Structures are given as structure tokens and as C-alpha cells.
Sequence to fold (532 residues):
Amino acid sequence: MAIWRERRRKPIPADAEIIRRRGGKIARWQVNGRTLTAEVDGDSVVTEGRVYYARWRGADGLLRTASTGCRTADMAQRWLDSKTAEVERIKSGVVTAAEAATAEKSTGLIDDALAAFGADMKSRRRTAGHIKETVSFINRAATACGWRRLADMDGLQAGAWLRGLLDNGVSARTHNKGLVALSSFGRWCVKQRLILSNPFDSLSRMSEKVDRRYERRALTTQEVNAVVAAARMRPVIEALKSYKQATLSDDERARLEHKGWNRALCYRLMSVSGLRYGEARSLRLSDVHIGDTPHITIQAGREKARRGAQVPLHGAIVDEMESFVEKRKQTLTGDSTGAVLAFPGLMGAHLFDDLPLQVGKQFKGDCEAAGVETVDASGRVVDVHCLRYYFGSELARRGVPLHVVQKLMRHSTPTITSGVYVHSTLSDMGAAVDMLPDTGATATEKQAATGTVNAASDTMTQHMTETMIADVKTLQFPSSFGNMRDSGGHVAETCKTPETPLFTGDSGVKKMVNGAGLEPAATGLKVRCSTN
Fold:
């Protein structure tokens, strides 16, 4: 084991002053106002590095050499002592070599790990927006908590910082998004063996239902039809307004009509297939299959879950989709009558050619033109994603099993399907309750409510009452009942066999005999014996 500074040789600087001293020569020169000295060896100077290096023998018996990063001999020696102590722990079986290597990597900078984490997400086809948001949140947490190295990351600090965000008005959904970002980074670091365990596993998600800032509602069928119709007509109507009712040229009118058809068909496709807007916008001509089983293929790289899917097409939209595809091909090939196969790149073209990256503003305008409220009285909003809500809600309303709705919505769990996307109105729930059997009033009560009481029913009730009273009058106690004794060994007077019947009087009128110490109970007769 040893520590040293590396010695480097380089030519003597031209402006260096050679000083002869006892035992040798020393060169002295200046660089950027600093005076440097070095030992002269022939026609070169020998300089020493600023940091110390160390050499030690690892647990596998091989010699290791590394920079300590220390500029003083004392600190370099401490660094080397920690390495030798680590070797002893591995040899004694306290830790494994892999755990020791991971602990060493945990001293790496968070910035370097974040850069590698972002590159890994990019290789897994995550969107640029998602990568930027995730890395930015982790950077914010590291800066707020003072983390520089991976070993500095602490779940308690992160939890306190996240709670502070809630206190400052951040929603529970934003809190959970940050928690997911931190947890995913921690899991990635464990997988890459940069740290031993995920420090953010102990963090808990907040309930988004109690603090929901942005709640969507499902559209009705009438509203969807109105929005689709408005989207198709709006480009032409707005152009006429802007031109002050001037006559549009045929080419301009055709372009605007195609623009409206483009957006309207996208809305309609989303409402009958459950596609997200980004998925619908990224569709290619080759993804549309019109045949025995019309369907749309979503490539894995363009789907949110990155799994890929085949979505069946509603029969009512097949003809319009086929016409739109033919029109799109004609637009791409011009007036050529050649076969489509003559253009190899044709089928790779986008299905919808004139859709914006963000359609929120256009969809809001379409809703206003259709007379659909974008915010209702309870604060629920309507945006383009509500078309997907409509798809799930309508499937559930028509009795489609939940597991089938889940597959059509392409959700990972049925909880997401039933808890978020399937919306039931008050009328839906009322109709469901009306399907229950009537377990309310009896036939007699119904007749009494209408004033037509059945006399035969009253006669039967009176006869049953008289029969029960007659049975009670003939009740007799066993002879052993009178032999019950008190704690002193004497026969209890109040517990002797009664001479008189329990009930007296005619016409079924009940009268309790107080001397016997007996009283009727709901499920029979209970005897109470008392010596007081």
C-alpha cells in the first residue's frame, strides 16, 4: 500500500530561470502571474501532480491503482485506509464484492446519473416532453434537498419537500407525478447497480380524488355529433367571415372543406375507437385496414403504452374512412391514374395531414360553435380527451363487460377503466335502480293504500290472534319448577308453581299476574325469580 504524486517530465520553459542549488538545479518561471518551480533533469523539468494516487491489493488479490482526489498526504492516507478496510469486510463476508462496488458507485454525481437516465428513457421511446419533465423534477428535488451525489438521496427529505409543495398550493396530481419521477429514477439506479436500494420506496401517493383540480366529463351522443358537425363546417364559415362574405375560389373552398373533414373525421374516429389524440394524429395510411374485419393498427412506437394494438372500427364509420383514404391517396398522387404500388412511400404517409400538434384551442372553438359548454356548473371540463371518455362510458352504458371495455380502452388494470374513464349519469343510475324487484309494500298494504282492504285477510288475522291467546292460557310449568331454592336452602315463594293462569279475562285481553313474577317476552316466556 502506498500513496504518491505522479511525476511528469516536460521541456524546460523558454523563459525559465535556472537556479543552482546544493544537490542539483531548479527551474523557476511564471504562468499567468504565478511563479512555478521544478527540478531540472537534463534538458527537462520534473513536475508533480496536484492530487495523490494510491495503490492497494483488492479482495481478489490483484493490485489496484486509483486517484484519491486528495491534495494532501493526510487525506490521501485516510482514503487508502477506507479502501483497505473495505477489502477486509469483503474477505470476512460482511459485504459482497458487488455490494461494495455499488457503494463505491453511489459516490458518483447525480448530474451524471441523470444524463444517463435521460438517454435510457430516450432509447425506450419515451417522448421528449416526458423526459424533460421527469429530469427537471428530479433536478428540482436535488437542488432543494442539497443532493450532489447519489448517496445523498434521502426519502425522508424528498417526502418533506413534496409535502412542502402541497402546502404551497400544488395539486395532489402534481405531487404524485413528482413522486413517480423520483421513484422511477431510484429504481433505475438500483437496476444499474449505482445504489443498493431505492430511497424513495417509502413515499406514499396522495389521493387525487379529494384534490382534483382538472376533472373531465363524458360527452353525450348529441354533443359529439354537434362537435363533429361544427368541426367540419368551421373552416369555411370562418373564412367567409374573415373575407367579409367575399366569394371563395373553388380551390380555396375545397382546401377548407378538406381541412374541416380532416378534423371532423379525427374526432369521430376517436369517439368510436377510444384512440388518444396523439395516436390518431400519428396514424399512417398503412395502419387502416378495410376488409372482412375493419380495424386500425397502432404501432408500438406510437402508442402510449408502447405495446402496439389492433382497434376494431365501428361499422358506421367504415365507409367514410374508406372514402377519406382514397381521397388522401389521390391528393398525394395528384391526378395520376397509376397504381398506388408505383409509389412505395405512399402508404407510409400520415392519414390526417392537417392536424396541429396541440388541438386544444381548435377543439374549444368547435365546442363553442356547437353550443357545448366547455366547463359545466360543477367545474368539470370538456377537452379533446373527453371523446375517449365518451367511448368508455357508452360501452359500459350498453352493458359491455368491464374486462372487454378494459381491452378496448387498452388499460393495464380495470381499476383505471372503471374509476376514471367510465362515467355514469344520474339517469343511468336511476335506470339501474328501477331494474330491482319491488320488495316494498305487501298486497294488503297496497289495497289499504287504495281503500280496498280484503275482508278475508282481516278474518284470517283475527283467527290467528285468538288461537295464539288460547294456547298461552293453557301453558303449564313442570313440577320440578317449584323445587327451585334460594341461596339459604329454602324454597323461593315467588318461584312456586302458579295456581292462576298467566292471562285472565275474556275476548283476548291480556292482563299480567303480578304475584307470579312473570312477564311475557318477544321470543317466548322468561321466568324471573326474586327473593327480595
Observations:
- The chain has 17 helices and eleven strands.
- The first helix runs from residue 73 to 92.
- The CA atoms of residues 307 and 402 lie 21 Å apart.
